[in-house]
């Protein structure tokens, strides 16, 4: 049993070993097969992958190509569409333009038709009027015809009477012509005489006249009114009284002085520019007659100088209007006039062309030249405007005002800090009598006369004030020296630009009118009294002929 069992065990063992060996071999074989299969499969996979990639690539390329083609096709289509729509747009806008043109044409035609209709209507009315007139004329002509026929019958019946009446008519005509020539000659002589007499009257009135104007207080100023009275207001108004400031004596008594002034004329606050002009119009006439005339407006800032001189109805526009109408009247007497205007400004002792370019103010140098023989003055490089119509004055004033506005600074209203001179040259010629006249009218708006102590000025402003004071006092000195009336007296014209500019229009035969402008306010009392005293000094000066003197009564 044991042997059997051992033999069986050995056989089982041998079988087991054999089985293990065969298993191992089988396993190795299987592994080899599996390895080969795996490799084959991988190769096959790789191959397939490659083939697939190529296929994909080909397909992508193909799709891209198709896409590109599609895009090109679409963009071509879009371009075509855009071109078509542009074309359509152009056609539409051309259409629109054509339609607008047609509408314009229609409108024009309609307007023309309306105008033609209107013309037709007025033509018809005028034809109807003419027809009425013609029938009236016809009737008159028929009456005249009948009268003529009667006359012809009469004349034919009496030939001798006819030639007699013809000779009578001829003689009468000659007499009428002679009378007319005598009248014309008389008219011309009378004009020459009028000029002489006018000048004599002006000289009798005094070659220097001083007038005073007190401006009205505005509503807001009414409470600050100074005590100014016009004692002879009902008569010819030549006096003005101003109550001075209160003074307290050492004993504590308060007094006020009453200052009385008299001038050639005093204008109370209610006066209008038209009344003022009535007084100066005679001097404007003198300028037309060939005299040099200076009209000044003097006074502190805000006293009414510009209102009187250059406002819309001021002296400058009124004087030029008078000159135009006078020149027309004188044309009947053989006079033709040439009028030239210029507008200058004296600022800081510098002469500026107010009609030139604004940027040249204070830069361009203007020179004053005098012809002492002819008593004429010229300024180099000055803008001169021929005043061939009354409207030109307005244009000149606007140009000057605009230039001054440009030149003004914040702290400096240029017009109150400078003197302006409107110069009107009037050259007249009489072709019938051979007479010639050359007069100049200077209309001067002086700078504000306030004194240095009151203006509290410094810097540029101080220089301006000093220059203003200097030129105003030079003006007083020149007038004072002229007033001495002695031959050979030195007249200090050269001491200021203003007096030098006006040299030929101050003194001699020339006429001067000084308007002193007065503010009605108590706050300006001190300046008012100073202005009135200055004006009195000028008024007491007599140039040329004797005239009544007046004094300051205190
Ligand atoms: N007669 C008047 N009637 C009514 N208003 C006047 C009259 N005079 C002056 N005014 C007014 O008073 C104000 C000051 O006048 P204006 O400007 O003429 O003074 P001005 O002396 O020229 O001053 P400035 O020296 O500053 O130029 C202005 O508003 C002006 O309209």
From TrEMBL:
Listed binding positions for ATP are: 299-306
**A GO BP annotation:** microtubule-based movement
Region Disordered, annotated ranges: 92-121
| Record's GO cellular component terms | microtubule
The question of whether Amino-acid biosynthesis is a record keyword is answered with no
Q: What InterPro entries does this protein's entry cite?
A: Kinesin-like_fam (IPR027640), Kinesin_motor_CS (IPR019821), Kinesin_motor_dom (IPR001752), Kinesin_motor_dom_sf (IPR036961), P-loop_NTPase (IPR027417)
SMART domains assigned to the protein according to its UniProt record, in alphabetical order: KISc
Main subcellular localisation: cytoplasm
Please give the PROSITE patterns that the UniProt record associates with this protein: KINESIN_MOTOR_1 (PS00411), KINESIN_MOTOR_2 (PS50067)
Which keywords label this protein?
Answer: ATP-binding, Coiled coil, Cytoplasm, Cytoskeleton, Microtubule, Motor protein, Nucleotide-binding
**Which intervals hold domain Kinesin motor?**
207-541
Subcellular localization is given as:
Cytoplasm, Cytoskeleton
The biased composition feature labelled Basic and acidic residues covers: 95-121
Record carries keyword DNA damage: no
Q: Which domain of life is it from?
A: Eukaryota
Molecular function GO terms recorded: ATP binding; microtubule binding; minus-end-directed microtubule motor activity
Q: Which Pfam families match?
A: Kinesin (PF00225)
Stated family: Belongs to the TRAFAC class myosin-kinesin ATPase superfamily. Kinesin family. KIN-14 subfamily.
What is the protein name stated in its UniProt record? Kinesin-like protein
Species this protein is from: Pseudovirgaria hyperparasitica
